[in-house]
Amino acid sequence: MTEAVPEVDRPQRPDLVVGVGARRGVSVAEVTGLVAAALAGAGLAPGCIAELATVEAKAGEPGLLAAAERFGVPLHGYGAEMLAAVEVTNPSMAALSAIGTPGVAEAAALLAAGPGGELLVAKRRSEPGGGRPSSATCAIARRGPQDGQRDSRSRNGRRPAVACPDGAQ
Predict the structure, then answer these.
(1) Angle at 158 between CA 156 and CA 161, to 5 degrees
(2) Can you state the percent helix, strand and coil of the chain, rounding each to 5?
(3) Mean model confidence pLDDT for the chain
(4) What mean pLDDT do residues 118-138 have?
């Protein structure tokens, strides 16, 4: 007897937001490598990304713009004061002193995810190797339910895993 496979809520569009923090001059390879590793570590696929988000002061950084282009998504910048209003799990004194917010990657991901958004991957630092310091951080959030959409959260408050456009989770 063949067991029926339960239907899974499939998003109409990708629902992941990647928050990215970066030093001036960060390379596209460092950003895309970090994001790809964070996605793979969480069992997520690049096709699930809806946008990259960062602080306005870095939204023109060539490495971030090129990374967004490579993922085929927009890059959205938020003011430091908006990011500072978002509680983050991994604050950075360096970010606070440099741009006025205790966090960029987590705060940008959560802000872009909107109300009901959920942080899936906490801030991670790039590992460029060769003794070079990290020049990028990223965090991944899932967008909250959109107005007019039913909330597909289970009883424990978490949304079930959903298939992304490329079929990966």
Answers:
(1) 125
(2) 30, 20, 50
(3) 83
(4) 93
